């Protein structure tokens, strides 16, 4: 890394200043001696913070600002925010894992001692120190860099070593050392070195080891564990027994206040303020400052009372290494807390008051009131006569009496006792008294939630809105500069009392506050108002509001206090903050838009970053200039004159450079670059307030301006092109404005071969040649293509002319095809409609036929009984004709089903003559007005096929023949139907007409799909194609002969059906009244009339129980009723017969097996599939009564399942 001369000089100066502070103990920054240890902010770092383990054995700080902590697992470097670990397996120069001693010499070298040897670190590089064979470098412990440049080394069992200019000097018991176990070293002001061993104390005077001063009184255990020398040159000695001695008048005298009896002293430190710090093993930490002793042990928050190391850093903070609880720090802070450790009885303080005698009073919400005077805390509560322990406000009258407002009323204290108590019985409204005030006339005022109460000597007089107050809930009472006092309210605003009446402060733009908590009035009458909506500035009738949008730390303001140094301090729910008053006034005058807030919290001395605003006053400026604020954990005080100037920030450092994710030495001359990804990590060690640091950087040659990085300590660049760059980085502290001197790094990203000018030039030349060759080749190809293209154009022109004509013809055909398809869909819909109509007709037809049969039977019986059958003959004839008509309707419906195209195919032996008769009956309406029908039917064999499909084929041929004949001359035309058997035994059907005939050129296409000779809209062109396909599928053939003007003949040839297989004759149907018992039948049909008709028809043999709902029938069956058969309609609303069967199949399979389905036509795919799968009997509506009885007898031929079921 290259540093310009000016920057190098500045960095050297800054390092020198830091080194001086570390090594000589300058007095610029130190912990304030007047505070107890519990009043310093206490921070800890353990493994979860990045330490390798929890034992901190030794501590040191280098001039660059880093803190170094030696552990059992290596040495950790700390910049205030992050730990970086150096271990023996990654840093071989360390020689061993555990670090037992750390020290920094005047030249900035960090020395590290281990069990295996001595290591130095200078300029970021670790190096081992080698000793000659006669010097043993083992079990090294304490290190002491002396002012003469030498390094003193204490060992555990190998004596004392001195290292200077590469040469070692050694002392052991053989050369005058008291003991080879050396525990402590210290340098006196005259350059002599004190040596503490387990057998006493010695001093090296520059020539030889001399005996140390005598201990007075003589300690039985003279094992020395720690040494320190104060600024006056006095020696302090810590021993194994826990006794601390101080050198006085040539002797070492016991210092009881600094001793921790029974706990070995492990570390001694004299800070820059002259305070002695004592660390012990098991007894915690002790500080002796100006004769005052302060202890921090387990009770005061020290998790581990075994102290291993002590260090004062360049900023005056004390660092503590413990054996099991990690690293601790005590640092000075601008705020000093006072709470339970200092003698307050309760955490939550509501208000603070300074009395005329200089004493301070603290009102707590639960602990009464406490007086602090002459360093002593005294508390009074309800046991001493206070009306209530929740005290909110304090005021002093002209006789020196103090009034305390509480939850239940007021109490007056004077001369150490409570003299007066005032409450609800004296006119105070119920509820707490928030604030109390004694005006210039010594009149007592109490602010309540119901108004402002004035004491007249006998009772309280309550003033409310009716008396001129802006609100009834009183939040603030404070003297007014122009006389009288201010009254703040919640939800109403501000008023003042003067001359016996209240005046509300109201002017143009006057804000209405939901709660006014505090008021600060300047000498010229300018008001600063703290509310829950921010800070308000009132001057000359003009109000300006400040909130977080203008830079305030928080909008809810409890108290406003000036510090006399140009700042306004404000308390809030999130702690304290201050703002320059000049900045606020500049915003109010429109000269700037924002202010800068400096927030104070736990890092600044508060035990809890939350202030209180429930009392009055919620903070004071004492006569000595100190600012006091109540919090939820005691009170805090700020002393403007005692705030130390912060130490300068350490210079910026660039810690690591990575190119394409690989580490690169910072001093590398040229760095090969691949992907161009560069990562630069930087920092400035700031041990006191790292969270306040903000970084910015710039890569000259790439970044056009500075990049604000915030708290991020790494810069990332991607796709960085090769070249030379200069990286600059600097840091600034938010609150104090301290700036760390910038650091720079020169980068030379060396291009790879493909990124060099030579490669690019070669590529450009190759590209140029390639372009020239390509252009020449393209020119030749273009000429050849021009010739080929001309020939191709001529050919395509002719082809396009042919294609255009063909496309025109195809367009006409497609239009015709579309219309035919529409017609075909309509025909399919008509077929489905026919099937549905047939189904709906069969239901009523069933009960009509059944009732007619019943009436006919009953009539015959009645006529025979009457003895005059002639009388009923006419009625019998009418019923017979009605039955004949109903049967005709039944046959029509059956024929509709046959030609509805919705039935599945059932190939079987088919009688062609019967199918022809049926087809002719359907075609009668089309034929009768065009021609006579002549039938010449000869013997033909039965054929094998589907009766429906064959009927459709013949019907199509007959209708085509009729449509070839014009209407109106039926007597002149005929349609001949001829059947015969050919020589191969096949059946032949011929349909001939005397119509217009078919042109010869059309005959070859007559069976093509969608081809028709009829006008558009008259036919689809699909009939003959379908007929041809079906006949061929049966193994037959269909041919056509035609003579234009004379007629056309279609000949259908079909192979004969195979002979029927020999099957045993079906069992004869039962006859007569079999069985001999009456059966019980359930009839389920949504047509109630059908059930009634069946009951009449079958009543002679069966008991009929009708149901019009399948769900009702299911409920009855679930009740256990027995039926021999269940006649159930297949298609019903709500619940179908299929669903009833499936439900019974799950719940009562034996009942489901007694179901017989009745249907007017299973015209859906689901219904047909169901009947095929179940194989249950199915009766078609309408029923022939006698056939129905016969079928039921066959189904009931088995005996009843139980005797009770028999008739």
TrEMBL record:
It catalyses: ATP + protein L-histidine = ADP + protein N-phospho-L-histidine. Keywords: Phosphoprotein. This is histidine kinase. The lineage of its organism: Bacteria, Pseudomonadati, Myxococcota, Myxococcia, Myxococcales. Residues 1053-1074 are annotated as: Disordered. The modification 4-aspartylphosphate is found at residue 1129. Its EC number is 2.7.13.3. CDD domains: HisKA (cd00082), REC (cd00156).
């Amino acid at each position: 890394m290259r540093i310009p001369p000016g920057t190098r000089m500045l960095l050297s100066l800054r390092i020198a200043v830091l080194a001086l502070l570390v090594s000589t103990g300058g007095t610029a920054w130190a912990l304030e001696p007047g505070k107890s240890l519990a009043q310093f902010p206490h921070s800890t770092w353990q493994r979860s913070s990045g330490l390798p383990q929890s034992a901190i054995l030794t501590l040191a700080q280098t001039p660059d600002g880093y803190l170094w902590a030696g552990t059992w697992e290596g040495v950790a470097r700390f910049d205030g925010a992050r730990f970086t670990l150096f271990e023996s397996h990654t840093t071989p120069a360390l020689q061993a894992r555990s670090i037992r001693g750390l020290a920094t010499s005047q030249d900035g070298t960090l020395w590290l001692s281990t069990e295996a040897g001595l290591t130095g670190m200078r300029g970021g590089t670790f190096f081992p120190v080698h000793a000659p064979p006669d010097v043993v470098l083992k079990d090294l412990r304490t290190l002491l860099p002396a002012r003469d440049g030498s390094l003193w080394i204490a060992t555990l069992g190998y004596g004392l070593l001195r290292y200077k200019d590469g040469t070692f000097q050694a002392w052991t018991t053989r050369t005058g050392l008291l003991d080879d176990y050396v525990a402590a070293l210290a340098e006196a002001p005259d350059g002599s070195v004190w040596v503490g061993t387990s057998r006493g104390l010695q001093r090296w005077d520059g020539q030889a080891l001399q005996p140390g001063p005598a201990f007075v009184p003589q300690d039985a255990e003279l094992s020395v564990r720690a040494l320190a020398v104060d600024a006056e040159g006095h020696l302090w000695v810590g021993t194994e027994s826990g006794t601390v001695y101080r050198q006085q008048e040539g002797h070492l005298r016991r210092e009881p206040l600094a001793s921790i009896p029974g706990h070995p002293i492990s570390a001694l430190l004299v800070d820059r303020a002259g305070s002695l710090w004592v660390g012990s093993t098991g007894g915690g930490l002790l500080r002796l400052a100006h004769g005052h002793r302060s202890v921090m042990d387990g009770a005061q928050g020290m998790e581990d009372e075994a102290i291993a190391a002590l260090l004062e850093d360049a900023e005056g903070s004390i660092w503590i290494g413990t054996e099991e609880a990690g690293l601790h720090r005590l640092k000075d802070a601008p705020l000093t807390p006072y709470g339970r450790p200092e003698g307050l009885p309760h955490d939550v303080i509501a208000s603070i008051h300074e009395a005329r005698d200089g004493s301070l009073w603290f009102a707590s919400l639960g602990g009464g009131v406490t007086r602090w005077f002459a360093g002593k805390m005294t508390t009074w509560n309800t046991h001493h006569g206070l009306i209530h322990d929740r005290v909110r406000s304090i005021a002093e009258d002209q006789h020196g009496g103090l009034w305390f407002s509480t939850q239940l009323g007021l109490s007056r204290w004077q001369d150490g006792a409570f003299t007066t108590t005032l409450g609800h019985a004296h006119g105070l409204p119920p509820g707490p008294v928030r604030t109390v005030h004694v005006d210039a006339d010594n009149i007592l005022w109490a602010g309540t939630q119901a108004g402002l109460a004035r004491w007249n000597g006998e009772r309280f007089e309550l003033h409310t809105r009716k008396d001129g107050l802006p609100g009834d809930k009183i939040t603030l009472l404070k003297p007014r500069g122009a006389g009288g006092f201010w009254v703040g309210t919640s939800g109403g605003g501000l008023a003042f009392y003067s001359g016996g009446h209240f005046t509300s402060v109201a002017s143009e733009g006057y804000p209405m506050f939901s709660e006014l908590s505090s008021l600060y009035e300047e000498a010229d009458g300018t008001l600063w108002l703290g509310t829950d909506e921010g800070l308000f500035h009132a001057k000359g009738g003009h109000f300006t509001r400040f909130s977080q949008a203008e830079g305030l730390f928080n909008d809810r303001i409890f108290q406003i206090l000036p510090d006399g140094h140009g700042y306004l301090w404000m308390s809030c729910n999130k702690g304290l903050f201050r703002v320059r008053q000049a900045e606020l006034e500049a915003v109010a005058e429109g000269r700037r838009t924002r202010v800068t807030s400096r927030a104070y919290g736990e890092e600044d001395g508060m035990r809890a970053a939350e202030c209180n605003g429930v009392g009055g006053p919620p903070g004071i400026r004492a006569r000595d200039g100190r600012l006091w604020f109540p919090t939820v954990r005691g009170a805090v005080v700020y002393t403007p004159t005692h705030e130390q100037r912060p130490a300068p920030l350490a210079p910026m450092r660039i810690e690591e450079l990575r190119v394409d994710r690989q580490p690169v030495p910072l001093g590398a001359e040229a760095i090969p670059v691949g992907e161009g990804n560069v990562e630069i990590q930087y920092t400035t060690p700031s041990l006191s307030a790292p969270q306040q640091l903000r970084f910015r950087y710039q890569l000259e040659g790439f970044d056009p301006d500075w990049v604000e990085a915030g708290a991020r300590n790494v810069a990332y660049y991607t796709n960085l092109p090769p070249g030379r760059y200069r990286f600059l980085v600097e840091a600034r502290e938010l609150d104090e404005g301290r700036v760390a001197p910038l650091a720079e790094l020169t980068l030379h990203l060396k291009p790879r071969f493909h990124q060099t000018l030579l490669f690019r030039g070669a590529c450009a030349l190759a590209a140029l040649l390639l372009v020239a060759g390509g252009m020449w080749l393209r020119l030749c190809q273009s000429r050849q293509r021009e010739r080929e293209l001309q020939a191709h154009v001529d050919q395509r022109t002719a082809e396009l002319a042919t294609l255009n004509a063909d496309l025109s013809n195809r367009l006409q055909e497609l239009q015709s095809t579309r219309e035919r398809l529409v017609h075909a869909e309509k025909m399919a819909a008509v077929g489905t409609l026919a099937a549905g109509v047939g189904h709906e007709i069969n239901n009523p037809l069933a009960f009509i036929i059944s009732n007619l049969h019943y009436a006919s039977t009953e009539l015959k019986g009645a006529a025979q009984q009457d003895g005059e059958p002639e009388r009923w003959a006419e009625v019998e004839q009418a019923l017979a004709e009605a039955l004949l008509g109903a049967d005709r309707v039944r046959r029509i419906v059956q024929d509709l089903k046959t030609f509805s195209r919705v039935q599945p195919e059932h190939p079987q032996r088919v009688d062609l003559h019967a199918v022809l008769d049926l087809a002719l009956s359907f075609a009668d309406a089309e034929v009768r007005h065009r021609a006579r029908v002549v039938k010449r039917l000869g013997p033909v064999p039965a054929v094998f096929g589907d009766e429906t499909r064959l009927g459709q084929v013949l019907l199509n041929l007959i209708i085509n023949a009729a449509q070839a004949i014009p209407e109106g001359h039926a007597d002149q035309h005929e349609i001949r139907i001829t059947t015969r058997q050919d020589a191969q035994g096949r059946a032949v059907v011929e349909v001939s007409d005397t119509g217009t005939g078919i042109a010869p050129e059309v005959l070859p296409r007559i069976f093509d799909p969608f081809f028709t000779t009829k006008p558009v809209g008259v036919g689809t062109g699909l009939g003959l194609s379908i007929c041809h396909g079906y006949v061929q599928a049966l193994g037959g053939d269909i041919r056509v002969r035609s003579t234009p003007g004379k007629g056309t003949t279609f000949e259908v040839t079909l192979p004969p059906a195979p002979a029927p297989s020999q099957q045993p004759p079906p069992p004869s149907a039962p006859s007569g009244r079999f069985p001999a018992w009456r059966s019980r039948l359930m009839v389920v049909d949504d047509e109630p009339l059908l059930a009634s008709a069946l009951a009449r028809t079958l009543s002679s043999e069966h008991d009929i129980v009708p149901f019009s709902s399948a769900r009702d029938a299911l409920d009855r069956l679930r009740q256990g009723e027995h039926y021999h058969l269940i006649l159930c309609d297949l298609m019903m609303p709500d619940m179908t017969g299929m669903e009833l069967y499936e439900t019974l199949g799950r719940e009562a399979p034996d009942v489901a097996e007694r179901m017989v389905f009745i249907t007017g036509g299973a015209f859906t795919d689901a219904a047909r599939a169901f009947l095929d799968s179940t194989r249950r009997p199915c009766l078609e509506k309408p029923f022939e009564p006698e056939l129905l009885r016969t079928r039921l007898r066959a189904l009931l031929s088995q005996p009843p399942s139980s005797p009770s079921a028999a008739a």
